[in-house]
Amino acid sequence: MDIPMGEIAAFAVGLAASGVVAGLLAGLFGIGGGAIFVPVFYPVLGLLGVDEAVRMHVAVGSSLAIIVPTSLRSFRAHYERGAVDIALLRSFVVAVPAGVVLASLVAAHVSSGGLRAIFAGIATLVALRLVFGREHWRLGDTIPGNPVRSLVGAAIGFLSALMGVGGGVMNNTFMTLFGRPIHQAVATSSGVGVLISIPGLIGYVWAGWGAPGLPVASTGYVNWIAVILMIPITLLVAPFGVRIAHALDKRTLEKAFGVFMLMVAARFVWTLL
């Protein structure tokens, strides 16, 4: 790839900056940072000449790989504070990975345009919830048991794996709609990110195994250059996000993140036109 060193350096700086933001968001919202990584990776991979047919898949798969250590570190920090609902997390141990496996099967057959459309659609719904949602909204005072809980867990795993995100916003919404404190929801979401990212990494390696047009240093739809570059940054800053999460009213930040997600969704829609 004949790209000037100045442009490559600019890409690296952009990825590093996104890693700082994503790591903070991982701890702050329990989202794993994928909502930042995917929209950054997609255009960068395009500028580096990666085939359009696999570009979005690699962006999503690499994002899930990066989320593995980020979510583990975030979960540990929240767990040490005693904020995680371990009982709820255990009830998701089968359902969430099952949804991720199903998403991997879909990813193996869906086109790049289809994956972008899915990302844009889910991102729009998430953004609307962040911008217009209210903490006092309730569907009940107790989180429902099975089969509803398992179905919700599977849906969180499925939709998150298709987007390359850790499922934080979706799980936060689920828990707070049934009366759980936002800080407990955020802490538990970091554990949900672990349940999504590990099987998601394996699934996207399998889904893209032997696919033509993959960039150098890729195993399936996971590019290890991007992963190795981003992991140290996200690991370093994620605990700072956790500290902020336990000390800050996040409503303004939620609105800002919702607006960002709307902009990301609009950009992906534009690429489909």
Automatic annotation (TrEMBL):
Q: Which InterPro entries match?
A: TM_pro_TauE-like
Signal peptide residues on this chain, from the entry's feature table: none
Q: Which UniProt keywords apply?
A: Cell membrane, Membrane, Transmembrane, Transmembrane helix
- Its membrane topology: Multi-pass membrane protein
Q: Major location, coarse class?
A: membrane
Q: Does the keyword ATP-binding apply?
A: no
Mention any Pfam family matching this sequence. TauE
Where in or outside the cell is it found? Cell membrane; Membrane
Q: Which GO terms describe its cellular component?
A: plasma membrane
Membrane-traversing stretches: 12-42, 54-75, 87-108, 114-132, 185-209, 221-240, 252-270
Q: Which PANTHER family match?
A: MEMBRANE TRANSPORTER PROTEIN HI_0806-RELATED (PTHR43483:SF3)
- Family, similarity comment: Belongs to the 4-toluene sulfonate uptake permease (TSUP) (TC 2.A.102) family.
- In Swiss-Prot or TrEMBL terms, this protein is called Probable membrane transporter protein
Q: Which organism is it from?
A: Nitratireductor pacificus pht-3B
- Print the organism lineage: Bacteria, Pseudomonadati, Pseudomonadota, Alphaproteobacteria, Hyphomicrobiales
